[in-house]
Amino acid sequence: MRACYAPRWKRCHWQFREALVLRELEGLSYKEIAEVAAVPVGTVMSRLARARRQLQGALNRKEKV
Amino acid sequence: MNCAESRLLLHAHIDGELDVTSSLELERHLKTCAACAAGQESVQSLKTALRGSQLRFDAPDSLRRQVRLVARGSSDKTQPGLFRSLLLWRSVAFGATAVALLAILLRTGISGADQLASEAVSGHVRSLMAGHLTDVASGDQHTVKPWFDGKLDFAPDVKDFAAEGFPLVGGRLDYFDGRAVAALVYRRNKHFINVFVWPATNTGAEKTKTQTRRGYSVIYREANGLHHCLVSDLNKTELSELANLFGR
Question: Closest residue of A to B5, CA-based?
């Protein structure tokens, strides 16, 4: 994921990245991600929301550069 | 449904993971809220961008060579050529994904305390939005403390601080920092305060750390062999008054 090199995304915690990669690249369901990460589904939901927000921010910043 | 709830549930809705009732409620909100509708478009365009192949890592040539060597050494010579080829490319794809995941997982930048604060805020918001603020609703510490008996492997220090302006509202079980914890709920005027309590692994000197996350004040305090993580939309000064009451 080349966008990972954007500084803001690099600061994103690995747990948020993990949720996003498992969802968007591996196509896992929330329940499957919860099992892999050993967290409740609610936590998966909030991690995905944060990961997307941070990635969006990183991409926006990259576009401006 | 308000905008804060909408912002969190939006992702599950777009991913097709939200129940029908909540989806309908969210769609009604999206029709009336331009900001949340714009947020929906933004998430959808991000998902589309992520599906693009240019955002994936290609397996490095060195990895391809290694996988080829391994596949050649272990493949059954009686297998048809097409099957062997499929097996090889499947191994290459798996290897590439593993390298990509490893690269992503290794780039950690936020400290454990930051992660704890984020988790605390998420727990606080969920407790308020899901209508599951308390399992035991009582301002009496002698009702709330015994309720945790047999549910946790430690006894949280439950005290009512009504005299100090922080009446106890109740308690509930929660999951935090990879374990079951006690969540004590206090109130300051119209502000709710979640206090997550769990045992400390070492009983050293007292530690306090104050942070702000997504507009919420978070105070982490370690005292008397217990971790306390306080979260609220209350200002830091007033929240620290309550933090100081723990471990007095």
Answer: A46
